[in-house]
Amino acid sequence: MSEPELRPAGDDPLARALKRAAAAGGRRIVPAPAAQVTVRGMRRRARRVAAAAACVVCVLAGTGAAVSLRETHGPVPPASVTDTPSPSPSPSEPGEPSASVPPTASPTTPPAGSATASPPESSPPPTSPGGDAASVTPTTQAPTTGSPSGTPPERP
Amino acid sequence: MTVEEFEEFYAHSVTQLVGQVYLMTGDLHEAQDVVQEAFVRAWGRRAKLSRAAGPEAWIRTVAWRLAVSRWRRRGRAVEAWRRHGAAQDAAAPPPDPDTVALVSALRTLPERQRRVAVLHYVCDLTVEQIAAETGVSAGTVKTHLFRARAALAPQLTPEEDHRV
């Protein structure tokens, strides 16, 4: 295929005929006044600005609603913990509430008879009327008649 | 471009652009409508349009894309123009038979060939400028011009051929 020969468009009879046809088409129209185009342009820009503002408002409202919902309900627990409950509660999870076992007691080694084990929450340790509860051991304390400071009484 | 400059640009170039788009689309009323819509869109960005950068090319490209979009819903547009554009047709002089034959021949071309031919022969754009405006390669532009010329040449009267 040979290279097509292109004449300059200025002295081409086809160009002159096409320009004449274009001019004839242009003469057949009555262009709208420029003021009408200006008014339509202003309306179009106003519509675009309004649409952009509406989009911004929607985005901000949605974001605010999502943030407020999250603050209201707090963090959602993981789905695996709530959906698949463990058959035996593990003591290594301090956040998991247990109804039958106290949190401080181990289910495998119960502290039966231990003086240093902390009692369950259902039976709080007896406290002295005016003293500190932490310094009193509930099972091994003997009734004393000495001074409240804890020094043994001198025998004659 | 200020508002006054834009209105001056519109008054100076709207007829010329409608004629060019008319040859591209083959429909005068649609050409007038899409060119006016392109000017409406250009008003919003007139600050970016400068006289030196050739705003006619921007208007022409937007009008062409609008026309292509409207071809998809052509039925409603033609019906609307029949309703609203009949009064203007009555006042305009009818085109001469040679112009009618040439425009009819243009309508038989594929739209890309028609657009390239109008840009070259009517808008006086070079092959490189057409390639930049239409987004095709220069070789494709030359091929389109060659085929369009071969299809339109039989429509030229012998009188026009002798003037060269």
From TrEMBL, chain A:
Transmembrane segments: 49-69
Record field: compositional bias (Low complexity): 111-120, 129-149
Domain of life from the UniProt record: Bacteria
Keyword terms of this UniProt record: Membrane, Transmembrane, Transmembrane helix
Segments for region (Disordered): 70-156
Listed name of the protein: Uncharacterized protein
Species of origin: Streptomyces purpureus
Automatic annotation (TrEMBL), chain B:
Protein name according to UniProt: RNA polymerase sigma factor
Family indicated by similarity: Belongs to the sigma-70 factor family. ECF subfamily.
Keyword Glycoprotein on entry: no
Cleavable signal peptide: none
Keywords: DNA-binding, Sigma factor, Transcription, Transcription regulation
Domain RNA polymerase sigma-70 region: 10-76
Residues of the RNA polymerase sigma factor 70 region 4 type domain: 101-152
Organism: Streptomyces purpureus
Statement: the UniProt record of this protein carries the keyword Transcription regulation: yes
GO MF, one example: sigma factor activity
InterPro entries registered for this protein in UniProt: RNA_pol_sigma-70-like, RNA_pol_sigma-70_dom, RNA_pol_sigma-E_actinobac, RNA_pol_sigma70_ECF_CS, RNA_pol_sigma70_r2, RNA_pol_sigma70_r4_t2, RNA_pol_sigma_r2, RNA_pol_sigma_r3/r4-like
A single GO BP: response to stress
Stored PANTHER family: ECF RNA POLYMERASE SIGMA FACTOR SIGM, RNA POLYMERASE ECF-TYPE SIGMA FACTO
